[in-house]
């Protein structure tokens, strides 16, 4: 990412360029943004500029080996840390950012203005809290202890340090205080008041300004329209199931259960469960008269509103608990046919 590709925040970009040009590069910087304002894009452009072999006119060249690797987010000296949790897209029991870095790259390359919710979706942990746990600190310390591949700066882009617990911060603190030579930490936060003081106090803070309406429109325009095939398939299946349940059509509902059991991997079955739980939460939010946080798109609104009207109030809470049980049984290798058939029966009894 070049500075010239960034929408908005010219002043911040210029400040970064002059910091790099002056040679007084702060080793820990905290970029504070309202979500979606481009802090990640700025951090990427800054590192690309710092490590570029032929910078000119206040921007990186985009052509040298370092720039080319930065543009693909595969620069060997630049690492990414972001909140994670266990999920269907990794088999790691104690996942770190490394477990999901492939999905991070895909997301950030397609749209560096992504939101935290986009990230959670991309790594398949929509229904969980992302955390930066101590395993992450260990992994980063190891990576930063290695000699750099290039002659430039080693760096960690640390997305949402507010999701880091005390133990992780304690582990990292010494490295943030006294990093190895030419090593940078770039923290990107949406909630600076929640960043642990021990980390916060060691950073140079930079405010990334919210985008104007016009700038937001430009970001939106650039955003890729990805046809989410799996999401569409999941929604069709979920809608068929719910329509059968509210119509008290047990045969059709059981057929949907068979279709869920036939999803071709346990990971996919669990991903469907997470998807279904998020849909049920939307129905629940509409029942609570909270459409603003239900996050229902215009085209699906009719379906969700219909379900909210037809399902009893306690239905949603019970089903979220039932779906959690399904996920843990899939994890324990219980036959998926039995598990999903049982889920359908329970839903049917609760309607
Ligand atoms: Zn370059």
Per-chain topology:
Elements: H1 10-22, E1 28-33, H2 39-51, H3 65-71, E2 78-81, H4 101-110, H5 116-122, H6 134-145, E3 154-159, H7 166-177, E4 183-189, H8 197-200, E5 204-208, H9 213-222, H10 229-246, H11 250-261, H12 266-287, H13 291-294, H14 301-310, H15 313-331, H16 336-350
Parallel strand pairs: 1-4, 1-5, 2-3, 3-4
Bound molecules: zinc ion (ZN).
Residues 52-54, 60-61, 63-64, 66-67 line the site of zinc ion (ZN).
Share of residues in strands: 5-15%
Going across the biggest sheet, name each strand in turn: 2-3-4-1-5
- H/E element sequence: HEHHEHHHEHEHEHHHHHHHH
User: Structural class per helix/strand content?
Assistant: alpha/beta
Overall body shape: elongated
Query: What's the pLDDT, averaged over the residues?
Result: 93
The major beta sheet can be summarized as: 5 strands, parallel
Low-confidence stretches: none
Bound molecules: zinc ion
Distance between the termini: 52 Å
Q: Tally of extended strands?
A: 5
Helicity range: 40-55%
| Rg for CA atoms | 23 Å
- Counting H and I runs of at least 4 residues, what is the number of helices? 16
Characterize the structure shown.
The chain is an alpha/beta fold and 351 residues long. The protein contains 16 helices and five strands. The protein has helices at residues 10-22, 39-51, 65-71, 101-110, 116-122, 134-145, 166-177, 197-200, 213-222, 229-246, 250-261, 266-287, 291-294, 301-310, 313-331, 336-350, and strands at residues 28-33, 78-81, 154-159, 183-189, 204-208. The chain has a five-stranded parallel sheet with strand order 2-3-4-1-5, with helices on both faces. Helix 7 (166-177) links the parallel strand 3 (154-159) and strand 4. The chain is elongated. The termini are far apart. The relative contact order is 0.11. The mean pLDDT is 93. Bound molecules: zinc ion. The site of zinc ion (ZN) has 9 residues, from helix 3.
């Amino acid at each position: 990412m070049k500075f010239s590709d960034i929408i908005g925040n010219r002043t911040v970009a210029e400040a970064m360029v002059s910091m790099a040009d002056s040679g007084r590069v702060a080793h820990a910087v905290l970029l504070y943004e309202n979500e979606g304002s481009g802090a990640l894009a700025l951090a990427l452009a800054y590192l690309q500029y710092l490590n570029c072999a032929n910078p000119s006119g206040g921007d990186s060249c985009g052509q040298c080996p370092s720039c080319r690797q930065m543009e693909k987010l595969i620069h060997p000296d630049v690492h990414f840390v972001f909140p994670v949790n266990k999920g269907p897209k990794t088999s790691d029991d104690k996942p770190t950012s490394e477990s999901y870095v492939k999905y991070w790259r895909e997301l950030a390359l397609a749209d560096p203005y992504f939101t935290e919710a986009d990230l959670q979706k991309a790594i398949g942990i929509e229904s969980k809290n992302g955390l930066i746990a101590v395993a992450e600190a260990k992994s980063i310390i190891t990576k930063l202890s290695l000699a750099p591949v290039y002659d430039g700066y080693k760096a960690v882009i640390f997305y949402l340090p507010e999701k880091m617990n005390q133990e992780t911060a304690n582990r990292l603190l010494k490295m943030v205080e006294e990093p190895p030579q030419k090593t940078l930490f770039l923290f990107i936060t949406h909630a600076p008041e929640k960043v642990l003081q021990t980390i916060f106090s060691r950073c140079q803070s930079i405010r990334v300004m919210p985008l104007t309406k016009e700038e937001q429109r430009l970001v939106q325009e650039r955003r890729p329209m990805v046809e989410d095939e799996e999401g569409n398939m999941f929604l069709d299946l979920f809608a068929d199931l719910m329509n059968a349940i509210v119509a008290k059509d047990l045969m059709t509902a059981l057929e949907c259960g068979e279709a869920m059991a036939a999803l071709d991997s346990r990971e996919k079955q669990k991903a469907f469960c997470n998807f279904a739980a998020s849909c049920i939460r939307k129905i629940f939010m509409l029942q609570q008269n909270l459409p603003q946080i239900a996050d229902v798109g215009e085209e699906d609104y009719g379906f969700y509103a219909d379900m909210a009207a037809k399902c009893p109030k306690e239905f949603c809470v019970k089903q979220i608990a039932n779906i959690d049980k399904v996920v843990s049984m899939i994890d324990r290798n219980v036959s998926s046919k039995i598990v999903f058939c049982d889920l359908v029966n329970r839903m049917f009894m609760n309607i």
